Amino acid sequence: MNESRVLHVRGEIFEWSLRDGANQFAWLSGPNKGYGFAIGRTDSAPLAEVEARDHVEAFLTEIDPETGYLRD
Question: What is the pTM of this model?
């Protein structure tokens, strides 16, 4: 993946890109600007789209709806 892609998951929008060997996900529709997460692979390859969606889904499951950040 040489460029970013947009993923729509559960009504939320994420920008997915590969930078420095990590799959980076910026939560564009989230309440906290610049918030997101990254998933690295030992081979520095992009995730398959189904894997990317699964990781975004898991991330959203852990978000505190009151703060928009991961639960403690």
Answer: 0.91
